[in-house]
Specification:
about 70 residues, 7 strands, globular, mainly beta, single chain, four-stranded mixed sheet
Length: about 70
């Protein structure tokens, strides 16, 4: 998934941990009710891959350009 703006989804990835990548701009926010293992979030140059399931995801870059999860 590539987007210039915010991404809001019910579910990211699949239960069998297939690789899924979400790429957004540095000012975007990614929200998902459920994130499966194998999902990679990329904000410009910063990237994070989930190894475990996460519920209620909200992610964005902070002023230091580090990924922050709420």
């Amino acid at each position: 998934i590539k987007a210039r703006g915010n991404v809001t989804l019910k579910e990211l990835g699949t239960p069998n941990a297939s690789q899924t990548k979400v790429e957004v701009s540095e000012k975007s926010t990614i929200q998902a009710a459920l994130v499966h293992p194998g999902v990679t979030l990329r904000f410009e140059e910063q990237e994070y891959t989930f190894m475990d399931e996460k519920k209620g995801l909200q992610a964005h870059l902070n002023a230091e350009k580090a990924i922050v999860f709420n």
